[in-house]
Amino acid sequence: MLRYFLILSFCIVSFSCKQNSKPETVTATTPLIKRDDIVLYEIFVRNFSAEGTLNAIVPQLDRLKNLGVNVLWLMPIQPTGKINHKGTYGSPYSISNFTEINTEFGTKEDFKNLVDSIHAKGMFVILDEVANHTAWDNPWITKHPEWYTKDSSGKIIWPAGTDWNDVADLNYDNKELWQAKINTLKYWIQNFNIDGYRCDMAGMVPDDFWKEAIDTIRKIRPLILIAESDKPEMYENGFDITYGWKMYHQLKHVWQGDSSSVAVDHVLKYEADNYSNNYKALRFITNHDENSWDDVPQNKFTNIEGSKAAFVTILTLPGVALVYQGQEIGYPTKINLFEKYNIDWNANPELQQWYSNILKFYNGNEILKKGALAEFSVENEKALIYQRKILGKDPLWVIINTRNEEITITLPPSLQNKKLLDIFSNVGMETTEVMKLQPHEYHIVEAH
After folding, report:
1. β-pair type (383-389, 396-401)
2. pTM score > 0.70 for this model?
3. Which CATH number fits domain 374-447: 2.60.40.1180, 1.10.620.20, 3.90.550.10, 3.40.50.300?
4. Domain 30-364 classified CATH 3.20.20.80?
5. pLDDT tens track for 399-422
């Protein structure tokens, strides 16, 4: 049976506000990328190169542009706390000064050069914003202890319900803290011309703070704002994109054989029922958390071919796709956030070329970027079959074998006894009522 989605025609809500003022330190850039066009790439500076520096990113910008990504998200570049630090280097999310650069990464001049170089390539850059906590050796601890959460004895504590003993929890009951934090947000925009923020643990920070902070910084210039949260309220707070955790977890279950394809449909129903038309999910098969605490994609999704099929899924469902550094070359090792690794960017050139090809295909396809999810077939437990559609264009169908085995699927009536063209591989095929799929085989087709 097919489930049909109501296709609504509505105006896309802009995620940039009119610029009311522009400090002299802000330089002009090309117009901010539209939300539908974003392909996000996450960089952990320490482990992105052997040098582990901001300068070492610059020579790789052409490779990243050719890969097909267009917004670079830098994990925290500020100094890491030393007190109670974890591992060799400490967590990048334990920040000892919000307006300084980690000297191991470089200087402010290096960062300004990196931002300018990214913009010169026609790409954009956002920073990680950590609003929930600070390092224990952040100067705010001694200068403004009233800005922190304390226990009954008056002792500053780490975030409740976590094991994050390397950070101190900020208390947003204090409005002076609001202004101080907003000032740090303004700092990187006004002085370095960054294009926005990915806000760490956004759901642990009060909604009212985000509303005031986002209203303030959007007056400086248009911005991209991503919340590490799946709360629907984040859109009311002013964010553009939220995390699609439910989809990620269900895709893992489906690929591992613990759930059927119906589980994906259930997530889509949940998203349709609980979010407004402005909803835009960040879709991923890995990121720094899932890599570090769980595993690499080729292990979570059976093998390299399975991880490719999973990436095709997140790329062809509505949302914004994320690539985490090393994913494109099948880096085989989990990257511990507290340690140093060296990624060989010359490894697995065929896989990197595949990522470049599929992202080039995606970037040139308006239906996949802007179209509605019109139909979802729930007939086949081991295969995903769904339709993307935009008014005035022939619809696309996505067919994906989620299992590492040969399967035979029943096609939806719209695809039976038809001539199909796989528009990614440019291979034609004729169908009957059923289709045989090899392990993790996938197609993006038009029916004729």
Report:
1. antiparallel
2. yes
3. 2.60.40.1180
4. yes
5. 999 999 999 999 999 999 999 999
